[in-house]
Amino acid sequence: xxxxxxxxxxxxxxxxxxxxxxxxxxxxxxxxxxxxxxxxxxxxxxxxxxxxxxxxxxxxxxxxxxxxxxxxxxxxxxxxxxxxxxxxxxxxxxxxxxxxxxxxxxxxxxxxxxxxxxxxxxxxxxxxxxxxxxxxxxxxxxxxxxxxxxxxxxxxxxxxxxxxxxxxxxxxxxxxxxxxxxxxxxxxxxxxxxxxxxxxxxxxxxxxxxxxxxxxxxxxxxxxxxxxxxxxxxxxxxxxxxxxxxxxxxxxxxxxxxxxxxxxxxxxxxxxxxxxxxxxxxxxxxxxxxxxxxxxxxxxxxxxxxxxxxxxxxxxxxxxxxxxxxxxxxxxxxxxxxxxxxxxxxxxxxxxxxxxxxxxxxxxxxxxxxxxxxxxxxxxxxxxxxxxxxxxxxxxxxxxxxxxxxxxxxxxxxxxxxxxxxxxxxxxxxxxxxxxxxxxxxxxxxxxxxxxxxxx
Amino acid sequence: xxxxxxxxxxxxxxxxxxxxxxxxxxxxxxxxxxxxxxxxxxxxxxxxxxxxxxxxxxxxxxxxxxxxxxxxxxxxxxxxxxxxxxxxxxxxxxxxxxxxxxxxxxxxxxxxxxxxxxxxxxxxxxxxxxxxxxxxxxxxxxxxxxxxxxxxxxxxxxxxxxxxxxxxxxxxxxxxxxxxxxxxxxxxxxxxxxxxxxxxxxxxxxxxxxxxxxxxxxxxxxxxxxxxxxxxxxxxxxxxxxxxxxxxxxxxxxxxxxxxxxxxxxxxxxxxxxxxxxxxxxxxxxxxxxxxxxxxxxxxxxxxxxxxxxxxxxxxxxxxxxxxxxxxxxxxxxxxxxxxxxxxxxxxxxxxxxxxxxxxxxxxxxxxxxxxxxxxxxxxxxxxxxxxxxxxxxxxxxxxxxxxxxxxxxxxxxxxxxxxxxxxxxxxxxxxxxxxxxxxxxxxxxxxxxxxxxxx
Lengths: 456, 456
Hints:
The structure is a homodimer of 456-residue chains. Chain A is α/β, with parallel strands linked by helices. Chain A has helices at 12-24, 46-50, 65-71, 137-147, 162-173, 193-205, 253-257, 304-318, 348-353, 402-414, 419-423, 439-448, and strands at 4-8, 29-33, 76-77, 80-86, 91-96, 102-106, 109-112, 116-118, 131-132, 154-158, 177-182, 209-212, 216-222, 225-231, 236-238, 241-244, 248-250, 281-283, 290-291, 298-299, 332-336, 339-345, 358-366, 377-385, 391-398. Chain A has a 5-stranded parallel sheet. A 5-stranded parallel sheet of chain A has the order 9-16-10-11-12, with helices on one face. In chain A, helix 1 runs parallel beside helix 8 (304-318). The mean pLDDT of chain A is 97. Chains A and B meet through helix 8, strand 21, strand 22 and helix 10 of A and helix 8, strand 21, strand 22 and helix 10 of B.
């Protein structure tokens, strides 16, 4: 009989871990418990499901319970919540949320992939009907119903992070009057200020109302139903519904109650092999602490790509390997309407905080040969160490091709390249896809001017 | 009085060198002589000028003679051909091609940027009217006139390299019946065979006739005008005009006659600082020998990006610096109709020849989240060293985004990354621009399976 592995959580990290472990060690007896009604779904696609670009929630799902259970041989249960880990007896207590039935399952090894949940601010009216979140497929179905309902509606989105802005786009395209409230002085504040402004301009050009430096202090209700918000300063705005999108917190209570070590911001602490403080328990995905790949500093950057990668590594290690997760750069891309925004590595503030003598360098350059039709500007802002010229971060806005360009900087930062080394890259060129000096090279070449001249 | 610098050649390399030297050392007296009637033009845009997507030849020109002469302070002469370098007396003899007048110019330093010219095969009928080349703006104007002339025409393109194929696309879109003859058994033979086939399929789907393993042995003429071709095997095809596009040879006669050392394939030999065998003479661009950045082997890969980069380096060094050109990876991208093709580094054959125990690994993956509308397949073929996992080459076909993806491999190869290190890159992700596992990561992850397992 094989070892018993229990995996708590059946989305990106958990299912990747279970699948990997099964591939490596087919005789392992693996069981997955998932609290929600869906496994293996692309949460990052939820804004586009809400907006109607994606029809069915099933389209977001890459594997069904039946496929995982019967084809992969991994019994998988939805609507099953793990409520207790007993490390002494090596059991997990699980509640069937449909029947209320409780059961206790022994394990040899355990993977915790409980993810994160939206922050629910402690403000008046937060429990009213008409206050939405967007994290699970069920959240998406609820929000889509109200967004796509007949009639003119007004919505408030609390939080101008990139998920809030993706939903703002999709709601506006669905005919909703959208107001975004962001407590920080600008949208996406990790971006260069001019880029934040471009994002705001783009949203406003498409009819989205953006309010920065302004939070929502209360949800106003009538008969238990949200009917407005009161914002910083006391002004009130009548609305039909509210989306709370001010970030997430890790679901680490189960681990904490089992006595596992925690990290920053309530995350579960893990080593590079994603092992918790208990040698038979691994954790991965949005619930764990990560490290920044440049600074080594502990961070919590819950993203789908990381969750998937960590899941595979945890699964491999559960099956006996010693793979390590190298950390995150905080790489991201998003779009609002026709503007693509992408970033990786440290922002100027982060670089300074980490002790670098950091400066930025900014360029604007067309994404094709100037004479080739359809060229659009790419703007790139590099963050670099003034003393050594080492590249620390890169941000870009412009056409879709900015994503590929930022990915080149991901590789460059990962290798510890200087801007001068980036400037020497033999990048591809043809008029329909790039100017002869790619924006990447222009950015690097301009940034070289910010580097202290070496003597002699 | 400043030093006298003469630059022979006023396109990508020559004008970059002159401009850079002037910026660094403004008191240098710089003169540029260009044989053709145009300077500073984007030769890579010529196919799109011929096809009519670009209206005027002026659109291809980024700087005029007047701008360079008067704004940059670099006297520049078109239709002036350098005919002799006298190294002993440090002079260059120049002929004004309009007046026939000859003049002799003293130099302290000299930059040779004479470029390359199309190969003119020694076959019957090659001198007939109606045999075209595409290298200079003048070539483009001539070819465009016949392509865009009224009436149904049939053309033969001799050579299925990427310039030939770009022109094939543009001619077909202009209503010309196009026949491409390629002597090699397949198009773009540095590509994986399946990619060559995809290129061929795409051309044929758009009505281009592709003949591989078949060369043109004679141009048939009537009254001095090309009226057909005779191909391998003796078959004859009636045509209205012929484009010869079988590659280029470096314009190195001037350097050779001056006694400068030559490299492979008739190139001018230069060191890493782009200095020739004469310490007062630099050479750059399509006329010089380069080295492959992976193998260090001498190569001749004449491309516009390299010419521009080398020009800057030569200009900087003429002005006293000691910049080095690091070599080429042979990075390229092109498109035929809606198929984009990109490659960098070594092909399997090149890697084997260079002594690597090389293997390839191939994947197909959508370029967006599967549920996001408009996803198109990217196919990526990696070349890697079986023993170490070191990445040696990458090729891709698919949507426009393949160019950005191959550029990530450019950075990875430049840094000497293994496929396992590529697999750990924290790339950007959002459903509209990538699947959660980017095709880059899928390619790296699949390639890892080809690497010899290390002993425990």
